[in-house]
Amino acid sequence: MFRLGLIGNPVSQSKSPHIHHKLLQENNLKGHYQLIHTEADNLGENIEWLKGQGFTGFNVTVPYKEKVIEYLDFLEDSARVMGSVNTVKIDQGKLIGYNTDGKGYIRSLITLSPNFLKDAETKSVLILGAGGAAKGIAHQLLQSPFKQVNIANRSLKRAQSLVNQLGASHFLTLTEATEELAQYDLIINTTSVGMSPHESEQVIPLNGVKPGTIISDIVYKPKWTSFLIEAKQRNCQLLFGESMLYYQAVKAFEIWTNPKYNLNQLRG
Ligand code: ATR
Q1: Is 20 in a helix, a strand, or coil?
Q2: Where in the chain is the domain with CATH 3.40.50.720?
Q3: Ligand 1 pocket, residue 17 CB under 6 Å
Q4: CATH 3.40.50.10860 placement within the chain
Q5: pLDDT tens for the chain, residues 1 to 268
Q6: For residue 207, what are the contacts with CB-CB under 8 A and spacing of at least 6?
Q7: CATH superfamily of the domain spanning 2-99+246-265
């Protein structure tokens, strides 16, 4: 019996119960995924409660993805690099923190384009944005030998610091990026620009982009952002934000249900 849950505030609009109940069913596993609305003062108390109740693990959402770290016993590499945790596994009474955003993104990319990572040496990637989401995605992409992974951001300093921290290729301004879109095979919007209720906004125009380029938006509300609408008009391949959302949940589910992710493995 897998007892799973989500800690955050707010949690009521979350799609996670639906996704995880479906994954449990598809894998013939018994379990339940529970929403646990948590006030800042109750974070530690609620985590203790989850441990005491025999939960297998839980997800963490805003505003506790960083704050939760002080309650954990171990951090897996992706969570350490990002300084943020979205998935916790409770194993032998110990709490292990993971961040599945980057790996979830990669899974969504491979689902759209199965050979993209295999051909990494011939591919150039442009990441728009230099916040937490950009960091998770860039960190995972940089595990493959891409020709280049460039980061463009409104604040150039932030792009520079992320490029330096992760060992990415180049940093540039959004304006510079718009002038060289033809050289990229994958362009990812990791900013919140275009998110409802600001649907008409777009982080950069897509003039000059090659047809067939993968245009990817992590915004999933609305599904069809202005960025992706323009990408479709330009005959690009589209990677929707809801795909990343789904696969980061699948990654969390694997961590909870696959013995490969146990404590001994992490220590080994
Ligand atoms: P997250 O953790 O969700 O990535 P974040 O750390 O606040 O959130 O980062 C938001 C990203 O969206 C940043 O790259 C931000 O650019 P700045 O670093 O220059 O602030 C980008 N962003 C937000 N609003 C933007 C806008 N109107 N135009 C361009 N970029 C924007």
Answers
A1: helix
A2: 102-244
A3: no
A4: 2-99+246-265
A5: 999 999 999 999 999 999 999 999 999 999 999 999 999 999 999 999 999 999 999 999 999 999 999 999 999 999 999 999 999 999 999 999 999 999 999 999 999 999 999 999 999 999 999 999 999 999 999 999 999 999 999 999 999 999 999 999 999 999 999 999 999 999 999 999 999 999 999 999 999 999 999 999 999 999 999 999 999 999 999 999 999 999 999 999 999 999 888 877 776 5
A6: 178, 181
A7: Leucine Dehydrogenase, chain A, domain 1 (3.40.50.10860)
Question: Catalytic annotation on 65?
Answer: yes
What pTM was computed for the model? Answer: 0.94
Q: Which 3-state string (H, E, C) describes 221-232?
A: CCCCCHHHHHHH
Residue whose structure tokens are 């595990």: 143
Buried b (16+ CB within 10 A) or exposed e, 69-93: bebbebbbebbebbebbbbbbbbee
Architecture of domain 102-244: 3-Layer(aba) Sandwich (3.40)
Strand partners, 57: 4, 89
Please give the ipTM for the structure prediction. 0.97
| Residue at 194: amino acid letter | G
Q: Which residue has its alpha carbon closest to ligand 1 atom 12? A: 191
Mutation probe of ligand 1 site: the residue of 101, 191, 221 with most atoms within 8 A of C-beta: 191
**Separation between Cα atoms, residue 263 and residue 238, nearest integer Å:** 38
Count CB atoms within 10 A of the CB of residue 196: 10
